[in-house]
Amino acid sequence: MGLLSLAIWLPIACGVLLLAFGRDSNAGAVRWMALVGAFVSFLVTLPLISGFDTSTAALQFTESLPWIERFNVRYALGVDGLSMWFVPLTAFVTVIVVISAWEVIAERVNQYMGAFLILSGLMVGVFSAVDGLLFYVFFEATLIPMYIIIGIWGGPRRVYAAFKFFLYTLAGSLLMLVALVYLYYKSGGSFDILAWHKLPLSATAQTLLFFAFFMAFAVKVPMWPVHTWLPDAHVEAPTGGSVVLAAIMLKLGAYGFLRFSMPIAPDASREWAWFIIALSLIAVIYIGLVALVQQDMKKLVAYSSIAHMGFCTLGFFIFSELGVSGGIVQMVSHGFVSGAMFLCIGVLYDRVHSREIASYGGVVNTMPKFAAFAVFFAMANSGLPGTSGFIGEWMVILGTVKAGFWLAFLAATALIFGAAYNLWMVKRVYFGPVANDDVKSLTDLNSREFLMMAILAIAVLWMGLYPKPFTDVMHVSVTELLKHVAQSKLVP
Amino acid sequence: MNQMNWLAIAPEVVLLVTALVVAMVDLWVTHPRRTPTYLLAQASLAAVAVLHLLRFDAGDTVYAVQRMVVADPMGHLLAFFATLATMVSLAYARPYAAERDMLKGELISLAMFSLLGICVMVSANNFLVVYLGLELMSLSLYALVALRRDHTQSTEAAMKYFVLGALASGFLLYGLSMMYGATGSLDIGEVFKAIATGQINQAVLVLGIVFVVAGLAFKLGAVPFHMWIPDVYQGAPTAVTLLIAGAPKLAAFAITIRLLVEGMSGIAQDWQQMLIVLSVASMALGNVAAIAQSNLKRMLAYSTIGQIGFMLLGLTPTVVSVNTLSAANGYSSSMFYVLTYVFTTLGTFGVVMLLSRAGHEAEQIDDFKGLARRSPWYAAVMAIFMFSLAGIPPTVGFYAKLAVLQAIVSTNVALYIWLAVIAVLLSLVAAFYYLRLVKVMYFDEPADAQPIASTGEVRTILSLNGAAVLVFGILPGGLMALCAQAIVKALGS
C-alpha cells in the first residue's frame, strides 16, 4: 500500500472503528484512540515532505489500480507541487481538531471524532486523486460527514445551515459531474486528469466546461456571490467543524481551479480571467467591508475567510508565477490562521457561550496568555509581516502589479480593511476594561488549549519567516502549469 | 423450432411446483409464525435463484415452449435478482406480518406466484406471454394488498390498484393487439422483422406504440400515469408495499426492453420521444411532490416516480443521429440503475417495518426522530440508503446515476446533454427530501423511547443490505459488467 493510500485510509479506518465500537461510556478511550489515529495519520504524511522531489512537475508517490473497468476508472493517486502541502496540512488540522474537542464534546464523542477522522481521509483523497471520477467521489463524500457534524453539534440554526451547506455544494458539483462525464466521452473513454489536460477542445466546449467547473469550485471557495452558505455554516458549526471548513474544505475549491479549470480549459480560462478577477476583487473589498460590520466573531472570521480566499483566486487568474504561488501559499497559510482564529473563538465560547463581540471586553485582564495568542493570530490574519498571512498576500499583490497597477491597488486595499476589522475586533474583545462578570470570571488557557495554540503559532511564524520550503515545492509545478495554460489547445 | 425445451424453463417450472407445494403444505401448518411454510418457501426461492444463476453463467440464449419464451442472460439475471428481492422482502415482512395477523399461507404463496409472473414476463418472447405474466403478477399483488381486509386504507388501496391496474393492462393489450393487427404476429422477433421491412402501415404502428408505452408507463409508475403509486404504497400494508416496490420494477424494466427494444426498435424514433417526456415529467413531479410529504411511505412513493424517471433516461438514446451506437450502453445503465434502486428501496422499507411494532406503524417521517440515539446502527444503515437514493458517493446510487448520465452524454447531442443537466438539477431537488430524513434521524431528539425489537434474521439481512449498498458503491465494477454483458447478449439475439 502506497503512502497516499495510507494517508487516506488510515484515518478512515480509525473513524469507522470509533463509530463501530465507541460509546459515550468509554469516551476517554475514544478520545485517546482518535488522537492516536489522527497523530499517526499525520506522521504518515511526513515522508511526503521529506521525500518530495522539487525538481520535477511530474506526479510523485503515484499509485494506480484499475477500479471500475467498464468506465476505465482507475484508483489513481499522486501529488505534485500544487497539491503536496495540503496532504500534511489536512492531517495536521485533524490532530488540532481532535485536541480542541477533548473535553468540550461530551456527547456522542465517538461519532464526533469518527466523523472528523473520516472527513480527513476523504479530503486527503481529494487532494491526491488524479482520476476525475475518484476526485469527484471524494469531493462529494466529504459533504456527508460535514453535514452530520454541523447538524448534530451545531448551534441553534444548525439544521438550516447544514442543509444550505449541503445543497449549495451539491448544486455546484452536480454540474461538474456532467462536465466530467463529457470529458470522459471526449477523451475517448478515460477519466485520467492528465489525459484531459492534453485534450484539444473547441472554444464553446471549453467555455461550458469552464463554467461547469466554476460552479462547483466557486461555491466551495466560496466566491462572491455564491458565498452565502459559508457565514451560516461557520456560525452554526461546532468549533472543530469551523476549523476544518475554513482550513481545508475551502481549499478543495481553490485547488480544483488549479487542477481542472485552468489546465483543462486554458483558452476559456484566459478569456474569462477578467470575470474571476472581478469576482475576486469584489470578495476582497466588498466582503472585507462586510466583515467590518459583523457583531458575531465567527461571522467576522467567516467573511474574512471569503476575502482571503479571494486573494487565492485572484492570484491564480493573473497567470504569473508569483500570483499562482502566492495563491497556494495563501491557501496553506489561511489553513493555519483561520483555523487558529476559530479555535480562539471556540476557547471563548466554551467559557461564556456567546460569540457576540459585545459580550466581551477586556479579556486580556483575565486571560493574558490567551489574549497574546489571539492578538497574534489576528495580526497574522490581517497580514502582518513576519507571519504567514503576509507572504501569500504580498506575493499575490506583487504578481498583480504586473497585470495592472490599479488591480494591485484595489487588492492592496484589502490589507487596510483586514487590519481594520481584525484590530477593531481585538480592541473590542480583548482590550479595554473588564466589561462584565462573565469576563471577570474567565480562566486562562489550560495546558491542552495552550498546546494547540502554541503549535499553530509556531506554524504561522515558521511559514512567515521562512517560506522557502513551501515555495520551493511549488515552483516547478507552477511554472509548468503556467506554460501549459499559456498554450492554446483549441481544436484547429 | 417447435420444441418445448423444458430445460430452459426449469427455474419457472420449479417455482410453479414449489409454489403449489407451499400453498398445500401450509394447510397443515398451525405454527403462528408459519415457520415451516416460510422456510420451505425461502428454500425453494433459493433453489430457483441458484438455477437462474447457473443458467446465466452458461450465457447462451435458448428459445423454449415453441418460441413463446426466451431464456437469455438478461432474463436470467433479472429473474435472479427478482427472486433475491422476493426472498429479502419475505424476510423483512415476516415479523411485521405476524404482529398484524397477516402472516397466513396466502402471503407467502401469493408472493411466490407474483414472482412467477415476473419470471414469465422477464423471459417472454411473445406478446401474449408478456400479458399472461403481467396478469399473474398483478392479480397476486391485488390480492396481497387486500390481505388486511379489516383495514379500510388497505382495502381502498387494493381497489385503486385493481381498477387502475386493469386499465393499464387494457391499454397494453389494446396496443399489443394493434401491433398484432399491423404486423400479423405475436412473436417479438417476428414483429421486429416485420417492422424492419418498412412496409407496415405507419399510422397503425404509431397508434399502437402510444398505447403500449402508456401501459408500460402505468406499470413503471411514470408521470402522467403515476396516480396509483402514492396511494397504493401508502395504503398497502408495508410488507406488501415491499413486494410491490421491489421485484415488479425489475419486471417492468424487462418488458420495456422486450417490447420496445427487442420488438419495436424499428420505430424507436417514436417511442423514445415519449420516454423523454415521461422521464422529465416523472423526475420533475416525483421529486417536487416528495418534498411536501410527511408520510414516509408516500414520500418514498414519489421518490420512486422520480427514480423511475431517471432510469427511463437511459432508454432514450436508442436511435441518435441515425445510429444505435449508444443504445446498448444506455440499456445496461438503466438495468444497473433499476437493480440498485430496487435493493436500496427494499432496505428503506425494511427499516420502516423494523421500527413498527404491534399497534404502531412507523410510517410518518417524524417516527424516525432521533433514531441515531435509539439505534446508531440502523440510523447509519438508513442514512446509507438515503444517500444512495440521493446519489451521493460512495454509495451505489451514485454510480447508477453516473452510468445513466454517461450514457446520454456520450451521444454528444445537445438535446441529451441538456437532458443530463436537467436530470442532475432535479436530483438536487431530490437530495433535499432524502437529506431531510437524515436530518430527522440525526439532528432531532427522539420522540419515541420504545426499544427497537427485531429478530436476528431481519437484523442480519438489513445490515447486509446496507453493507451491499456501500460495498457496491466502493466496488461497482462487477455488477456493471454483468449488466453490460446481459444487455449485449439480449440485443445480439
Characterization of this structure:
The complex is a heterodimer of chains A (492) and B (493). In chain A, 74% of the residues lie in helices and 3% in strands. Chain A has helices at 3-21, 27-50, 86-100, 109-128, 132-141, 143-153, 158-186, 193-198, 203-220, 229-236, 239-264, 266-271, 273-292, 297-316, 321-352, 363-366, 368-381, 388-403, 405-429, 437-440, 447-465, 468-486; strands at residues 60-68, 73-79. Chain A has a two-stranded antiparallel sheet. In chain A, helix 3 (86-100) runs parallel beside helix 15. The longest helix of chain A is centred in the C-terminal third of the chain and has 32 residues, at 321-352. The model of chain A has no long low-confidence stretch (mean pLDDT 87). By secondary structure, chain B is mostly helical. Chain B has helices at 10-25, 35-58, 73-99, 105-122, 127-145, 152-183, 188-197, 202-220, 228-235, 238-245, 247-263, 268-291, 296-313, 327-355, 371-374, 376-390, 396-409, 414-443, 456-474, 477-492; strands spanning 62-64, 69-71. In chain B, strands 1-2 form a two-stranded antiparallel ribbon. The model of chain B has no long low-confidence stretch (mean pLDDT 88). Chain A binds chain B through residues 19, 67-71, 111, 133, 136-137, 140-141, 143-144, 147-148, 151-152, 158-159, 162-163, 166-167, 170-171, 174-175, 177-178, 181-182, 184-185, and chain B through 372, 376, 380, 387, 392-394, 398-399, 402-403, 405-406, 409-410, 412, 417, 420-421, 424-425, 427-428, 431-432, 435, 438-439, 442-443, 475-477, 480-481, 484.
What's the gist of this structure?
Chain A has helices at residues 3-21, 27-50, 86-100, 109-128, 132-141, 143-153, 158-186, 193-198, 203-220, 229-236, 239-264, 266-271, 273-292, 297-316, 321-352, 363-366, 368-381, 388-403, 405-429, 437-440, 447-465, 468-486, and strands at residues 60-68, 73-79.
